[in-house]
Amino acid sequence: MAKNILILGGGNGGTMIANKLRHELSTENWNITVIDRDNRHIYQPSMLLVPFGLDDAKKIVKPRNKYIKPGINFVMDEITNIDTENKKVSTKSGTVFEYDFMVISTGCHPDPTEDEGLAEAMGNDVFTFYDLDSSIQLGKALKEFQGGKLVIDISSLPIKCPVAPLEFAFLADWYFKTRKMRDKVDIHFVTPGPGAFTKPKATKVLTKIAEEKNINITANFGLGLANGEEKWIENLQASERINYDLLVSIPTTIGDKAISDSGIDDGMGYVPTDHHTLKAKKHDNVYVLGDATNVPTSKAGSVVHYEVDVVLYNILSEICGGEAMPMFDGHAT
Ligand SMILES: Cc1cc2nc3c(=O)[nH]c(=O)nc-3n(C[C@H](O)[C@H](O)[C@H](O)COP(=O)(O)OP(=O)(O)OC[C@H]3O[C@@H](n4cnc5c(N)ncnc54)[C@H](O)[C@@H]3O)c2cc1C
């Protein structure tokens, strides 16, 4: 009887590992199933461009099953429980999937309910380009903006694509210059990190560029409270407040609810993962890929590309009776 490989999440990581495994393993011996809650693959980097009219929201959404190869079973359902002791996964529809090997690639997402006051403020001069609907609304808000203080705020780290918020600030500088109203807009970049970026060399270069563009940077500011009525944000120590007219927020980012509900997370919804083999630390026959891991590297599509070959090699190695090799070195570019 054929054995089962179950892949949780049909985003970047899930799609790539499913296709690569299908290429290597015969359909007689191995069933491969990908579960995702929907059939809408969003090209996430373009959510940064949509507010500035540099990409079209409709064009960045594609059906997932177009990219999942024939011979792979694609199931559209919400994963609700992961039972690694009995090697079973349950979904909202009541289906139970058994696995011999599993890859968890459920990603991560910004969750404004994790930040006090932020969920209530969202939509009212507060938007995030980390979500497609909010990114579209932000585009309208930017168009209507007549001037004032534009604050770009990262609630906490880690976030997906750590450089994207600063890219937003640079694009905002270009956008308002193009509209010939840059002198009416005060652009303010607020981060819990030590500076413009997380790495010192890049920070030096990016700080200089920000200064040239007249972008104000506040570092070491972790979000403690947002007040959508009075339009300010406050740091964790409650010692500093920053007012805004328009707030571009990157809310606290967490892993998927199914991971935390199943009790296999690190407290933030990420699966404790061996940094080099990408095997789940506490569960046999389980690998973790992409943003769902707690590996200390960028949460980025580029990282998923490097990780996928490690997961592929190690699953094939285990199938052939070998061991998982510590091949991932954490590089992101
Ligand atoms: C604004 C922005 C800009 C970015 N720019 C870049 C960039 O320039 N370069 C770069 O390399 N990366 C960039 N990224 C990051 C990149 O998009 C992600 O790191 C990458 O998509 C992660 O792939 P993944 O497979 O781990 O997760 P995802 O692609 O997010 O896939 C996770 C999948 O799991 C599914 N899922 C989760 N939970 C469940 C559940 N319970 N039931 C069913 N399905 C579930 C989701 O529906 C989703 O399809 C950017 C991201 C954003 C938001």
Description:
The chain is α/β, with parallel strands linked by helices and 333 residues long. It has two domains: 3-107 and 256-319, FAD/NAD(P)-binding domain; 112-253, 3-Layer(bba) Sandwich (FAD/NAD(P)-binding domain), CATH 3.50.50. It has seven helices and 20 strands. It has helices spanning 12-24, 118-121, 132-144, 164-178, 200-212, 257-261, 301-319, and strands at 3-8, 30-36, 40-42, 61-63, 73-76, 79-83, 88-91, 96-98, 101-104, 108-110, 126-127, 148-154, 185-190, 216-218, 223-227, 232-235, 241-243, 246-250, 253-255, 286-288. The strands form six sheets. Strands 5-2-1-9-20 form a five-stranded parallel beta sheet, with helices on one face. The protein has a five-stranded parallel beta sheet with strand order 11-18-12-13-14. A three-stranded antiparallel beta sheet has the order 6-7-8. A hairpin with a 4-residue loop joins β7 and β8. The two termini are 41 Å apart. 41% of the residues are buried. Residues 9-14, 35-38, 44-45, 47-48, 78-79, 105-107, 129-130, 160-161, 164, 256, 258, 290-292, 299-302, 304 line the site of flavin-adenine dinucleotide. Flavin-adenine dinucleotide (FAD) binds at residues 9-14, 35-38, 44-45, 47-48, 78-79, 105-107, 129-130, 160-161, 164, 256, 258, 290-292, 299-302, 304.
